[in-house]
């Protein structure tokens, strides 16, 4: 079994029209000089950070795949830009594609054996859009509880919320109409949603998710600009976003997975399966949006499925 190697640092990221010196924080588990392609992991949110995905670091130990995590601009340990709050023209897909390309170039991750991409949730949006550009060096793609379009995501959420207890639905509806997304009443109701569809771990929330909640509560710039204040809707700059028309351009083998009770409902997952030419879709039973943080046997299955997919011969 490979030894654990841990490296972290920052890479400068120049953003047009921003005078502030910016950087992207990264963390590497494994040895980039190994013969294996590197796995670049894109976190969800928007507005969280890499911490809740760190369990994927075991792919280095189990499969010899070096894993590169990073915090997207505006998130966690990367540069925060509160001066851009509410600026929808700034918080666009191109910003995140530029950041990913900058990370790949600066760390020279396109060289040698190339790299894999895994995008979880919101990160799946950027991962799919990136892969559709047919970037140099990309070998395989994993879309983990990804989102093919904002419209399909919201449609799926509406189906899910209709399955909540009537009293919970009523509270959510009333507080949403008032815009009271931070009220104790809304939080109590939304926790029922989170426990059933976001992460089905017991106890809830698992410790790995706590940094994500902390990041989003301390700086809402990214989430509010891109998605809006409600966790059950998308009213920000990505409200009309879709990558569906571009999915046929993804040229690498692709693994798509979601959970049976995932916030990334089958409605927003199906387009990946329908339009990506070389694709496999797995739905994990009795699983939510955070499959890799739920039951131990489920987490182990997720890592095994991903690791075997990334290391199988073409």
Automatic annotation (TrEMBL):
Protein name per its UniProtKB record: AB hydrolase-1 domain-containing protein
GO biological process: proteolysis
Keyword set, alphabetical order: Hydrolase
Hydrolase listed as a keyword: yes
Limits of the AB hydrolase-1 domain: 37-295
Source species: Oidiodendron maius (strain Zn)
Keyword tRNA-binding applies: no
Sample GO molecular function, one term: peptidase activity
Family per similarity comment: Belongs to the peptidase S33 family.
Domain of life of the organism encoding this protein: Eukaryota
Pfam families: Abhydrolase_1
């Amino acid at each position: 079994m490979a030894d654990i190697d841990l490296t972290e640092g920052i890479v400068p990221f120049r953003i047009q029209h921003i005078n502030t010196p910016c950087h992207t924080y990264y963390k590497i588990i494994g040895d980039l000089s190994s013969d294996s392609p590197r796995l670049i992991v894109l976190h969800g949110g928007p507005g969280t950070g890499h911490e809740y995905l760190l369990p994927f670091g075991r792919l280095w130990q189990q499969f010899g795949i070096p894993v590169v995590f990073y915090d997207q601009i505006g998130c966690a340990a990367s540069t925060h830009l509160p001066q851009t709050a509410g600026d929808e023209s700034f918080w666009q897909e191109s910003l995140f594609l530029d950041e990913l390309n900058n990370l790949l170039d600066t760390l020279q991750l396109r060289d040698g054996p190339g790299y894999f991409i895994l995008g979880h949730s919101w990160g799946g949006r950027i991962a799919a859009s990136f892969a559709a550009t047919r970037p140099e060096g990309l070998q395989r793609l994993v879309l983990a509880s990804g989102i093919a379009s904002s419209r399909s995501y919201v449609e799926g959420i509406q189906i899910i919320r209709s399955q909540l207890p009537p009293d919970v639905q009523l509270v959510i509806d009333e507080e949403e109409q008032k815009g009271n997304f931070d009220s104790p009443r809304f939080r109590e109701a939304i926790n029922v949603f989170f426990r059933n569809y976001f992460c089905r771990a017991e106890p809830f929330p698992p410790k790995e998710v706590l940094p994500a909640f902390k990041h989003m509560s301390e700086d809402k710039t990214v989430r509010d600009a891109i998605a809006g204040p409600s966790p059950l809707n998308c009213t920000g700059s990505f409200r009309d976003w879709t990558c569906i028309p571009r999915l046929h351009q993804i040229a690498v083998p692709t693994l798509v997975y979601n959970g049976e009770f995932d916030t990334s409902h089958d409605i927003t997952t199906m387009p990946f399966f329908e339009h990506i030419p070389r694709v496999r879709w797995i739905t994990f039973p009795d699983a939510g949006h955070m499959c890799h943080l739920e039951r131990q046997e489920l987490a182990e299955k997720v890592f095994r499925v991903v690791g075997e997919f990334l290391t199988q011969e073409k």
